[in-house]
Design goal:
There is one protein chain. This protein is an all-beta fold. The protein has no helices and 3 strands. The chain has one domain. The protein is elongated.
Length: 44
């Protein structure tokens, strides 16, 4: 069953260090946001 108040969102955060931002929301909690440094860089 899918509820509108449950979700997982993934973002790419661009900056000097690339990061992945993960937002998890369950029905009984506020959104939990964590950021993780990515082990690579983009070359232009």
């Amino acid at each position: 069953m899918v509820h509108q108040d449950q979700y997982i969102k993934n973002y790419l955060v661009i900056g000097d260090i690339l990061k992945a931002r993960v937002v998890v929301k369950t029905r009984s909690s506020k959104p939990v946001i964590k950021e993780y440094d990515l082990p690579f860089q983009l070359e232009a």
